[in-house]
Amino acid sequence: GNSGHNPPNQPDHELSNKFWADYESGSCKQDCEPGPFGCEPVPPPIALYDSIAICCAMGQSWVNVEYCTSRSIGDYSNGWVLNWGDEKCVKDCSPENGPPCSNPEHEDGSAPIYASVEECCARLSWIDNNVCTASK
Asked: How many angstroms separate the CA atoms of 91 and 6, rounded?
């Protein structure tokens, strides 16, 4: 028997396996049986998209696309982001990995993500490049 657990809530629509924009997390979730990561029945009425890429581009247009696509699969972009407070660049990866990963976790979905630390540090033109790229 299933020792008194309630059956999971049955979604009131056919699950489409398409993607929808979850504004709270700045990512896209898949309209599928809850269980695997990212599966959550779409709350009606929300637009559905055929892929994470299209959902991020159309449904989360104000969110950085690398941020949206990486968060949608439970990952990090591994790009470089500006930490304005410390005036240096940090990597968008798990804080558990230690420097140069951003700690606390990078959660500003609208911030630009740069392909290289040099590209990121170029935005801090008044900071010496060696200081900016140093990971403490």
From this structure: 43
